[in-house]
Protein 1
Amino acid sequence: MGSAAWRILGTGSAVLAGIVAGKIVDTIWERSGHDKGIDPTNPEVPFRQALLYAACTGLAVGLARTFATRKAAQLYARSAGHLPAEMRTDEV
C-alpha cells in the first residue's frame, strides 16, 4: 500500500466516522427533548443550549474520528507490514 491508499483510507474513515457521530448526537439530542435541528451559531438559541450541543457534538465527532483513524492505521499496517509514513516514529 502506498501513501495514496493511506490518504483515501485514513481520510475516508475519519470523514465517515464524523458524519455518523454527528447524526447520532442529533438523534440523541432530539430524543432527549431538545429542539430538532439546532444551530449553535444562531444568536436566538440560548447560549447554554448552544454550548452544550457544540460540546457534545465536538466530543463525539473527535472521538469517532480518532477511533476510525486508529483502526484504519491498524488495517493499513496489517496489509502493508508497517504504519503509514505520516505515523511512523522510527527512522526509515
Protein 2
Amino acid sequence: MLIRRRTPPAPPAPDDPVLAYALTDLDWYARTRDGARRWHWTTELGALLAGAATVVAAGIQAPAAVTATVAGIAVFIGGFRQVFNHTERYVLAAESWSRLRPAVERYRLLPEDERDAEARRVLVEAIEAVSAAEIQSWAIHRRGARSGSDAGPGIV
C-alpha cells in the first residue's frame, strides 16, 4: 500500500483573486482526493477482513450469533461501499486535481508583470473546464449506476 503525504496548501495570493480561487479549488480537490482514498482503503480492508472472518467463524463452528454478526458486518460494508462509492470520488478528485494543477503551475511560473487579463482568463477557463469535466463524469457515472433502476429520465 502506497502511503503519500498530503501536499501542503500553497500560500494564499491576496493580490491575485484568480490565483487564490484556483488554489482554493486545488486544495479542495487534494483534500477530497486524500479523504476518499482513505475511506476507499478502509472499506476495502474492512470488507476483506469481515469476509475472511465470516469464513473462519463458520469453519471453526463459532456460535451462530458470532457468525451472523460478522456476516452482517460484511454485508453492511458492501452496502456502505455501494452507497458512498469512495472509489469513484477518489478517482474524480484525483483527475480534477491532476488537470488543474498544471494550469495553476503554468500561471504561477509567469512573471508578475505578465499575469495580465489574458493569463487570468486562461486560468479561469481551466478552472471552469475542470469543474465541468468533474460534474459531467459524475453525472455519467450516476446514470450508468441507475441504468438498471426504474428512475425516470433526467433524474440523476
Protein 3
Amino acid sequence: MRGLLDETWLIDTLLGFEEGREESDSDDGHLNGLGNQEEGFEVVLQARRAFSSDWRSWIIGRVVTGGDGNLGLFGVGYCFGSQNDSSGSEVNLVAVFHDSEYANKGFGINVMQAAASGLAATNLNGGLRSFGIDYSYRHNINEDWQIYGEALFEYFSSELRKSPIVCNNYETEVGIGFIYV
C-alpha cells in the first residue's frame, strides 16, 4: 500500500518474501556445513519527506522487520524526469543498519555451524551494515497497477567483512514486483 499523507510525505508498506538460503546456493561450496535457512515473510515500512512539492528530491527511511531481526535504510533520493504520477526512475544514496540478529542470520556462524563447516565461529554486532546506491523504476500498467523494478549495490562495513561467509566487499540485488496503487 502506498499513499501521500500530505503534499510532501509519502508512506509505503508492503509484505515481502525472504527466500532463505541453502548450502547449495554457493557454487564453490562456500556455504557447506552451515545448514539451510528458512524462508519467511518480512514487513517493509518506508517513509519519504520531499524537500519540495515537485518531488524531485527527498530524504528516505525504510525499516524491514520479520522473524530474523531488523534492518533500517536511511538516505537521500532524486527522481529523474518531470512526471508526478509516481512512475519513472529514481535513485537513492543510503546508509544501511541492522541489529545483531539480522546480521548473524545472514553472515554469522554459530558454534555448531563452525564445527560442521570448518569456518571460524563469528558473532556479529548490530550497527552499520553498508553504504549503497538504490535505483528503482516504476511503470504504470493501468490506473490501479504498477510494475516495479529495483537494483541495489551495497558496499559492506568492516564489521560485516569480518565474516568468513562474505566473499566480496559488496553485494548486489535485483528485484521486480507489482504494486496496487
Protein 4
Amino acid sequence: MIEMNQIKAGMTETIQKRVTESDTSLNYGSGKIENLLATPRIVSLMIEASSMLIDPLLPEGFVSVGKHVEVDHYKATCLGATVTVEVRVDYAASGKVILSMNAYDEHGKIAEGKHSRMIVNYKKLMERANERDMEAKKD
C-alpha cells in the first residue's frame, strides 16, 4: 500500500494562463473557431494543476496518472483573456485521488469538473506499458 499521508482532502492548487493563439479551438481541431479557448486546453490545464498538486507529495519512484476526467465547459473565453484553474482534493486513499476542478476567466466561471488520478510505481508502469507494446508488435 502506498503512503499517502501528505495528500489530504481540502488541499488546493491554482494556476493561471493568458490565452494565446496556440490555446484556441482552431489548433485543437474544432473547425473554424480561431479566437476562443479550446475545451481540450481547459482540460489540459486542469490536469496540469492536478499533477502539480499531487506529484510533489508522492514517495520517490511514484507518480500520479489520470484515470477519469469529466468536464463541463459552458462559457466562451476570448484570445488574450487570463484563465485561472483551481483544483481541490476531495478524496485521497488507497492509491486514488479525486479532485474537483474549476476554471474562470475575468468574467466568471467558464468550466468545472471532476478528475480521478491513481498513484502508481513509475518503474512498474513503464514495464507494463513496454510489455504490452511488445506483445502488440508480435501480432
